[in-house]
Amino acid sequence: MNSSSYFEQFNIVWLFGFTNSTIMMTFVIIVVLLFFKGIELIPKRWQSVYECLENYFYYITVQNLSNVGLIYFSFIVSLFVFLVFLNILGLCPYVFTPTTHIIVTLGFSFSIVIGVTFSGFYKFKKDFFSILMPSGAPLILAPLLILIETVSYISRAVSLGIRLAANLSAGHLLFAILAGFGLVFKFAMFIMVFITLLEVAVAIIQAYVFCLLVQIYLTDTIFLH
């Protein structure tokens, strides 16, 4: 297999006037709505899974953001479910995975960090700038510390997006390489079973890590450090 063919799965293709990335994200939203449609007194399987998921994220939201941070609870849960379905469905053959594209993940991360920034300014006004100056630091070091903290603040969005795209892209490339070997070495197909389980775990973990970091960043809209 030509090495360039390994990267064909990441190509953006136009279909019916939309990109495959847009179509996939729209499809995931529809799938999620169908899976979790309706609330019943005796929950079905997917409703039970969703209720367990909500209970867990309720706990970590209170733990990280206190009761005040529950205003972000629905956003965090929805973001997690959306990312998990994007990541897992993207493991299916011939299915495009938008979260392997850094432009998509950076779009998510920068939108969140910009939203956090505006929310912080809305709540704390000019006092929000205090996050760029550690308390108790000597004033003589203020210019250097402010520069470092500003770069660190901006790097949140970059690292948040790159982490998600890099981990998923590596898994998809590994799939493509092993699939190529599988045509020659039949035992490679058995290895792919274990790699598949590993990638499902990575898909869930990366979505969780993304949402957990978002929660940590949202603390700046509730508390001044």
Walkthrough of the structure:
Keywords: ATP synthesis, CF(0), Hydrogen ion transport, Ion transport, Membrane, Mitochondrion, Transmembrane, Transmembrane helix, Transport. Pfam families: ATP-synt_A. One of its GO terms (cellular component) is proton-transporting ATP synthase complex. This is ATP synthase subunit a. Helices cover 67% and strands 2% of the residues. It has 225 residues and is mostly helical. It has one domain. It has a two-stranded antiparallel sheet with strand order 1-2. The relative contact order is 0.14. The mean pLDDT is 79.
Query: Uncertain regions: pLDDT < 50 for 5+ in a row?
Result: none
Order of helices and strands: EEHHHHHH
Total number of strands: 2
Overall mean confidence score, pLDDT? 79
Shape: globular
Keywords: ATP synthesis, CF(0), Hydrogen ion transport, Ion transport, Membrane, Mitochondrion, Transmembrane, Transmembrane helix, Transport
Pfam families: ATP-synt_A
Membrane topology: Multi-pass membrane protein
Subcellular location: Membrane; Mitochondrion inner membrane
